[in-house]
Amino acid sequence: MRCTIYNGHPKYRLSGLRSLAKSLECYVPIHYDALSFAFLTEAALCALHVRFLNDANPTDVITFPALKGDAVRMGEICISVDEALKYEQVQCLSDELTLYAVHGWLHLAGYDDHTDHDRALMREMERKTLDFLSTQSTPRIRVQKIR
Length: 147
What we know:
The protein is globular. The strands form two sheets. A four-stranded mixed beta sheet has the order 1-3-5-4. The chain has a two-stranded antiparallel ribbon with strand order 2-6. It starts with a strand and ends with a strand. Helix content is 44%, strand content 22%. The chain is built from five helices and six strands. By secondary structure, it is α/β, with parallel strands linked by helices.
């Protein structure tokens, strides 16, 4: 799978997504031809949230799955770096961003979180996936602050 990374956040440089995607594909295959990860500011992700989901509230992740019938299966996981920063006192930024990437990946794999039952399944799968990544010694997303 071809993996591209777009960093639209002016304060952070992020890396390690390609190795993370390879490990995720081993554990939860999504069978995509191409995948892009976009790291955005809260304002940029809110604009997408309004445009595509008609919701003006801040969010952490928005996932755009491949469309049925597309000859080339492409997906996108858009992540708010600013939303992850809100949890930095609870969990390091690298771990929070990795959780968001896993969450988006699981959406592409068909997991949902619209109902309480679906949310519980999603949380369980997030935990199992993060445990798998740890057993594989897959590094978390690397974060470097830009001066």
